[in-house]
Amino acid sequence: MELQQQFEAAVAKSKELTKRPSNEELLLLYALFKQGSEGDVSGDRPGGFDFKAIAKFDAWAEQKGKTKEAAMQEYVSLMDKLYQQYA
């Protein structure tokens, strides 16, 4: 199966989890998804008291420079691991 198809299948699997992964795992999933689908983070870091948006921005920014393909592959691997734990 092609990487893009594996990535899309992993995204679909993420909606099938019956238990909630940890915040750290969710942030990493979000960051790898965004890096794999959009590339490097852009725009200004959110400010104020929107801590959720700040955490998501920072997690995505940590992936900066990683290729879309590498991010997709990491997302697929992480989702396989989480699926075994939380499905």
Q: Can you tell me about this structure?
A:
- By secondary structure, the protein is mostly helical.
- It has one domain (3-86): Acyl-CoA Binding Protein.
- It is 67% helix and 0% strand.
- The protein has 4 helices and no strands.
- It has helices spanning 3-14, 23-38, 51-61, 68-86.
- Helix 2 (23-38) packs across helix 3 (51-61).
- It is flat, with a radius of gyration of 13 Å.
Q: Architecture, according to CATH?
A: Up-down Bundle
Oligomer: single chain
- Work out the helix count: 4
What is the tally of beta strands? Answer: 0
Quote the beta fraction.
under 5%
Q: Percent range for helical residues?
A: 55-70%
CATH-derived topology: Acyl-CoA Binding Protein
Give the N-terminus to C-terminus distance in angstroms: 22 Å
Mean pLDDT: 97
Number of domains: 1
Order of H and E elements: HHHH
Main sheet, how many strands, which sense, barrel?
none
Alpha-beta content class: mainly alpha
SSE blueprint and pairings:
Elements: H1 3-14, H2 23-38, H3 51-61, H4 68-86
Helix pairs in contact: 1-4, 2-3, 2-4
